[in-house]
Amino acid sequence: MKSDFLLAITQLSAEKNLPSEVVLSAVEAALVSAYRKDNFTPSQNISVKINPSSGKIQVWVEKAVVEKPSDVSSEISLEDAQQINPDSQIGDSIMVEATPRNAGRIAAQTAKQVILQRLHEAEHSAIFEEYADREGDIVTGVVQRIEQRQIFVDLGRTEAILPAAEQVPGERYRIGQRLKVSILEVVRTNKGPRVILSRSHPDLLRRLFEMEIPEIFNGTVALESIAREAGYRSKVAVSARQDGIDPVGCCVGLRGIRIQNIVNELNGEKIDVLCGARTPLPLLPMLSVRPRY
User: Which of 67, 97, 155, 287 has its Cβ near the most Cβ atoms within 10 Å?
Assistant: First the structure.
């Protein structure tokens, strides 16, 4: 049967959506600080191991091998050292188990806050790694709150920001509304990772085309160029990669249903689909420099 301490670690792992190995490692590192403070000197090298099956805690301290120890907290006799490691010699260092009698109490009390801090750090790192490689991707979130024209969007594991500069002119947002947004940037801050979203970036339109039009997703039709004036109009140049394929027809769809789905997602933004090679589209006043956050 698992100990209460191990059950608590398992629960923390589930609540924070982190691997149990990550949680155990964080707890062990936290306990090193706790035990060093209460049972050892600040300069001593100690390590803590938690048995993942039983939850048993073992504390190990590094001691110097000497002929006759003068400080038993940091030294061990050659005879005792050789009982642990027969190859030990004077001048060596050896790790000796020195689990305090009050190990369980310290684990439950002193390390609590440190453990939570380490878990927050591990959680922030996991969130950053999850979203850092997804810049330009589309995600769906729910509007949580609106503050000073900034929209806070719940993505599930984290709350992201849709700044005023990345919103579409004329769009109105409400709490509880589901939004498709493009991940513009992921940055580290003192309060954890910050995910910046966009509704106005051309990448949103590009990903919507890839999601809605199978020929673009599988490479039969290529998206050559996009120019967008968010909220008003966009122009998209497409080309066929196979003979006999009508790239514009693929994008428009039967009775315009494919392009209409994209237009609906962008709240009526007009979209022109052109057949052309990869050349700049001569059309719209686009922002040449986008703000960073």
Answer: 155
Q: pTM (2 decimals)?
A: 0.59
What phi and psi, each to the nearest 5 degrees, are found at residue 243?
Answer: -65, 145
> In this predicted model, what pLDDT tens digit does every residue of 153-203 receive, in sequence order?
999 888 899 999 999 988 889 999 999 999 999 988 888 888 999 999 999
pLDDT band at 256 (very low <50, low <70, confident <90, very high): confident
Query: Which amino acid is present at 147?
Result: E
Provide the percentage of residues in the chain whose pLDDT is more than 70.
86
Q: Does 115 or 57 have the greater pLDDT score?
A: 57
DSSP the chain: ---HHHHHHHHHHHHHT--HHHHHHHHHHHHHHHHHHHHS-TT--EEEEE-TTT--EEEEEEEEEESS-S-TTTEEEHHHHHHH-TT--TT-EEEEE---TTHHHHHHHTTHHHHHHHHHHHHHHHHHHHHHTTTT-EEEEEEEEEETTEEEEE-SSSEEEE-GGGSPTT----TT-EEEEEEEEEEEETTEEEEEEESSSHHHHHHHHHHH-HHHHTTSEEEEEEEEETTTEEEEEEEESSTT--HHHHHH-GGGHHHHHHHHHTTT-EEEEEE--S---S-----SS----
The dihedral formed by the CA atoms of 213, 218, 219 and 224, expressed in degrees to the nearest 10: 30
Q: What is the pLDDT of residue 291?
A: 36
Residue 111 pLDDT exceeds 60: no
Report all structural domains of the chain as residue ranges with CATH numbers, in order of start.
4-128 (3.30.1480.10), 135-198 (2.40.50.140), 202-275 (3.30.300.20)
> Are 119 and 16 in contact, with CB atoms under 8 Å apart?
yes
Task: Give the residue from 194, 174, 173, 175 showing the smallest Cα distance to 183.
Answer: 194
> Taking 70 as the threshold, does the pLDDT of residue 54 lie above it?
yes
